[in-house]
Each structure stands twice: as structure tokens, then as C-alpha cells.
Amino acid sequence: xxxxxFIQEFSGExxxxxxxxxxxxxxxxxxxxxxxxxxxxxxxxxxxxxRRDLNKLAEQGKLVxxxxxxxxxxxxxxxDYHTRIGMSTKxxxxxxxxxxxxxxxxxxxFINIGTTTQACARALLDKHGLQVVTNDIHVASILSAxxxxxxxxxxxxxxxxxxxxxxxxxxxxxxxxxxxxxxIGISGIDADGTLLEYDYRESRVTRAIMDCAKQVLLCADHSxxxxxxxxxxxxxxxxxxxxxxxxxxxxxxxxxxxxxxALHSD
Length: 266
Description:
By secondary structure, the chain is an alpha/beta fold. The protein is built from ten helices and 15 strands. Helix 6 (115-123) runs parallel beside helix 7 and helix 8 packs parallel to helix 9.
């Protein structure tokens, strides 16, 4: 009888764990990245339990473990653009709203490629007298709805995958300007503060954007902290403002506080 009860309880634990593992995968598919803290809060288990779950899924090849969380992605290829549009939409909207509070009427700014910067462009539609240089077709399309926003599209090769414009011609045009602000998105932020991208050509354009602006505003939702990508773009030390949708975990918070970055988050 005791053995039977033990087997029942053990089987029940396995069932509960498998159910939790399936839900973790679904959450990552919906959000692109989940943190350990989020999973602990959602499932009301210990961080150690979540770490064991993530390690098990990583061993099965179902996800990739990063500092403080996990995602489905590799470091060599970004998630499909149409999938990224639907990821962290509320978080990106909050980022856009905070970004708009930092951009005064009449400002000149660069806006680079990304679904987060597209959300920022939507939030800027109520601003007046902006002058924008962008290498994202979608950003230009969004801002074209504002009657007094002047837009300059950077020339170069248009990526069919997401409407981003990259290449030597893009960098050449960017270098002709000196703007008040650079509004940039990012693919990942490594544990040491390195800013990461997937496309070497895109990173070259973004570096030029950062060099040609008086202040750099990095817009990154929570999924970007600890996310891997293979191209180095720069470092958090080069950022003036970091706008995100939730307070970073203690490791990244310490990293940010050890720089001169102004953090804007929940």
C-alpha cells in the first residue's frame, strides 16, 4: 500500500512537471523570452525548480538557456519578422509611451530598424515638428501619417525579410547628419553589457547612428536582457537612456547603475 501511494504521488509530480514544461514552451513562443522571475511568479514554485525545468528543456533541444531566463532562438538567426511583431506588444507600447516623454517637439532624431522602434514611431505621432532620418521602411510609413514630421529615408539595400535598409550607402547617408537623438532597438544585451545584433551590416548602420547623435536612447523590452546574438554592436556605456518595459533583474540592474545610464522602466 505504501509503495502504491508513493508511485501515485511520483506519477502525479511527473504529470504536473510535464504540464508546466509545456506551458513554459507556450509562453516562450508567445513572448520570445521568459525570465526565471516571471516563471516563478506564474507557477508559484521555487527558482531552483524553474532552473531544473529550463535545463531539462534545454537538454531536449526545445529552448536556449540565457542568463536569467530562456528563449527559443539561436545566436545566429533572428526570429521571423512577422512573429516578432506579435511579441511583447504591450511592453513595446509602454516603451514607446516612455520614449515619447523624452522627445521634445521640434527634435531631430534617427530611428533604426525594429519592431520596438516601430512602436516608438507610433507613440511619436502626436509630436510636432520632428525631423527623422530612418533606415526602416515601416518607421517611415508610420510617421508619414503625421503632417508636420519631415522624414528622410536612408538609401541602401532593402531587406525583404523586414523592410530594413542596410549597406554602405546607408552608412554614408547617416554620416551626413548630426541629430539631437538616436532612438535604437537591439537584438540582445549580453551579461557583460555588450549590445548584440544578428546582421553585421545592420550593426554598422546603428553604430553610425549612435556616433552622429548627441544622445542615444536604447529601447529594449525585457526579452532582450541576456539574449544572445553573434555581432557586437557596442556597450551599455555608450547609451544615455535605457527605456524598457519592466525593471531588469538584479544582475543587469547593477550593471546599469554602475554606468551613467538613465533607466526608464516600471
